[in-house]
Structure formats: C-alpha cells, structure tokens
Amino acid sequence: MREDLRFHCYDHDKDSDTIAADTAEVESWLQGREETAQQPSDTLLEMASSNSWDLLKRYTFRLRVSWSDGYYAASVAALAEASFGPTVPEAVNGAAEMICHLFKAPAELASALTLAAELDETAVRHMRTER
Fold first, then answer.
1. Which of 39, 49, 31 minimizes the C-alpha distance to 13?
2. Of 7, 16, 83, 125, which cross-links 94 as Cys (Cβ 3.0–4.6 Å)?
3. DSSP letters of 22-36?
4. What CA–CA distance (Å, rounded) separates 45 from 43?
C-alpha cells in the first residue's frame, strides 16, 4: 500500500474540499453532511417552486410499493421515509404528500404530482390473494 494515497472529499453546496488521510476521516467528514444531503438544496427548492411549481408537477416521481404487516408502503428512492396505508391509493397519496413536504410545496399540490408506481413482489402477492 502506498502511504501517499488520500481521499478527496468535496462539498458542492459550500464549494469546499478536504483531503482525508483514511476512511475514519472520511466517515467523520460525512457524518456532519448526511442529513443535509437528504434534503433538496436551496437552488433545487427555488427551481421547484418557480412558475407555480411547474417543474415539480412535470417531473415523474418513481415510487416503489411493498406490502408488510397489513399495510402497503410507498417510498421514493431518494427519501429515507415511506408512506403507509391499508390500500395502494392511500400509500401512494401519502407519498405525494411527503414529496410536497420535502419541497416545501403546498399540500394541495399532491394531487397534481406525476407519479409512477412499481409494485414489488410482496405487494403483487398480496393483491393476488386479497379477498
């Protein structure tokens, strides 16, 4: 192993970089940024809200729907959370409301969002056997 190898860590929002000597330093650098990275940047929030939320309405949000313990769960890959409901529509509509909350958009906008949902095998299995 070469001792001169380092990790280059770049923070786009702050336009700053750090050189880390090992993975422990990288983990320490990431720790303070993980939660912030899960939120849209100020630039993205500004773009999403412009023209009466036009970009947010035109973008197709891809949801993954699963089934467990009596509930459907609809999640967006970029979000760490899921919306739950006893029916697919309730879970999907809850996910649309979560997206609005994430982008600080009015809750009424949820019904205007473009959504595409993929059912995983647990959701399909439950739907096929549901009576």
1. 39
2. 83
3. SHHHHHHHHHTTHHH
4. 5
